[in-house]
Write a structure and sequence with these properties.
elongated; 6 helices; alpha+beta; about 160 residues; six-stranded antiparallel beta sheet; single chain
Length: about 160
């Protein structure tokens, strides 16, 4: 079965760590350049002072940049999330939303930089916003990209 953006969004929303953390993947764009994710702050996902738990904010932003890059580059590349940073700006309540974007141009740049098996590390930024559009947190995620060895070795032969 082919993984489509719609199937992946549904699967990620039903995946137990997201489902029980109040995280819903609203969409992946058809060209894998964008994703939208929501966190529903509730009894399970809030902290002691009844605002969004930092771990929930981290979980809602964890895999999406690397997934967008991975789907754009295809099977010839190793892509994974290596690091993340969160700057908390205000208490998060209600439904929080993060929008992720990796342009075609950025994916092509990463492809070129990773040619020949070169290790590439790239930072991506997003904001988590509440229903009023106020920024609750700024998030940075570092993504690792490398062309797979079998591809690099074939190109040299």
């Amino acid at each position: 079965m082919r993984v489509t953006p719609r199937r992946l969004a549904l699967g990620m929303s039903l995946w137990a760590p997201n489902l029980f953390s109040g995280i819903r993947v609203r969409r992946f764009s058809d060209d894998w350049t964008e994703a939208t994710v929501e966190l529903h702050v509730n009894l399970i996902t809030r902290n002691y002072v009844k605002t969004a738990f930092g771990g929930s904010l981290s979980a809602m932003t964890d895999p999406y940049f690397f997934m967008l890059v991975m789907h754009q580059l295809g099977r010839d590349y190793v892509v994974w999330d290596t690091r993340g940073e969160i700057e908390f700006l205000k208490p998060g309540r209600g439904v929080l939303t993060a929008h992720f974007q990796v342009s075609r141009e950025k994916a092509e740049e990463l492809r070129e930089r990773a040619r020949g098996g070169v290790k590439v590390l790239e930072w991506f930024d997003t904001e988590v916003k509440d229903a009023a559009g106020d920024v609750v947190a700024r998030v940075r995620r570092e993504v690792y990209v490398r062309e797979k060895r079998r591809v690099s070795e074939t190109a040299r032969a």
